[in-house]
Design brief:
185 residues, mainly alpha
Length: 185
């Protein structure tokens, strides 16, 4: 009640939720993972067209993946379809960790199968450790499958990672733009 009376109620409430989500993510262990796995899969069933519905959950999943990469990789590989709407934070959390070789193998399999290309690409949005070759492969596969949403996303990934090096524009942005132009999009 005291919080609601203050002007900063929403900011304080959001800060509290984020802190608790981080605390919960860090508290997951091998012994309580099954309980958390069931919770995560249950939460992942929530359907919403409002992207503002999930920022705390996204943060929780990314923190979980960073703090417990082997458990996050297990969730991502064993419950791939069930957690499909939430691949991005798991991928982002795993990308720079010890499971990166296994993650790369999984991404290679997804590229070959033509699955989850959008999430695989979006994880590289504003990514200090962007793998341009992998994004090029994602772009090529998306173009083969006429997945124009992923092709357009490559442009956003390139723009979000642009610093002072124009090569990212030549390597990613312009090829994606060319594909979209050729396809009338």
């Amino acid at each position: 009640e005291d919080l609601r009376k203050r002007d900063s109620y929403w900011e304080d409430a959001d800060k509290f939720r984020r802190e608790k989500a981080t605390e919960f993510a860090n508290s997951i262990t091998a012994s309580n993972f099954q309980t958390w796995r069931e919770r995560i899969l249950s939460y992942a069933q929530t359907r919403s067209e409002d992207l503002a519905t999930f920022p705390i959950f996204y943060g929780f999943l990314e923190t979980f993946a960073r703090a417990h990469p082997s458990l996050a990789m297990k969730l991502l590989t064993e419950d791939t379809k069930e957690i499909a709407g939430f691949h991005i934070p798991l991928l982002r959390g795993l990308w720079n960790g010890p499971e990166q070789p296994a993650l790369r193998a999984l991404l290679d399999a997804w590229i070959t199968a033509g699955q989850y290309l959008y999430a695989s690409t979006k994880q590289f949005f504003d990514c200090p450790t962007l793998d341009r070759e992998l994004v090029k492969r994602l772009l090529a596969r998306a173009a083969e499958l006429n997945d124009l949403n992923t092709v357009a996303l490559v442009m956003s990934v390139a723009a979000s990672n642009y610093r002072d090096d124009d090569s990212i524009i030549r390597e990613l942005f312009l090829p994606a733009l060319e594909i979209l132009t050729q396809r009338g999009s």
